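User: Sequence in, structure out. Go.
Assistant: Echoing your sequence, followed by the structure tokens.
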Amino acid sequence: MNNELNKIKAKIRALTSKTTENGCTEAEALVAMQKVGELLEIYNLNLTDVQLSEEICIEDKVFLRRRTIPRWAHVFASIGAFTQTKPWTNRPYIYFFGFEPDVQMAVYLSNIVLNAMETETAAFKRTKAYLSTTRRRFATNSFKLGLAHRLDQRLVRPAGKGIVLHKMAAVETELRNQQPDLRFRSRSSKRVMINRDAYTAGQEAGDRVNLSRPLGANAETVRLLT
């Protein structure tokens, strides 16, 4: 049955490519779309099912560069939501599972965040706010939390509808198929004390992080987030 269904989906994709932009007449395009509608109804499908079935899901991981999961690691959940991938931690890695382009973007953004945590924290440790305090580790942790929370805000995507929800359902189904023994356990969030000045400095640093992805070595950088 799966082979037959895959053939039907391939046929639907071929039919949807019959457009006037691709050289078909209006009559040919209309007939193709009518046939698409018939096949979707007969096999209880929709175009999202058909389009997503052409993509493959992959898994990739990002090294956290430390043995323990940092308190600000929740930002990777935001990256997962933004890129429509399924993230989880298994020390010392963050894993992402989803459609290949989405996973690639999740890994890219994760490395941007990790680099920012290192470079911006190093810069913060040269400031008067850090050098003048006697609780420097406390200030550093507050700075990192502020930076992570601001990145969280920048990674917020409008609530998914249609193809977004459909895509996540397909990703979760494929993840269960590939890794049936994988179990998720949520991490409880705890309220923490912060150094307000350091936290604010972290938020300002979060605004400076360039969350853009270049299309190529000589291509202009495309702004993904504001």
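User: And one key feature?
Assistant: DSSP finds nine helices and five strands in the chain.
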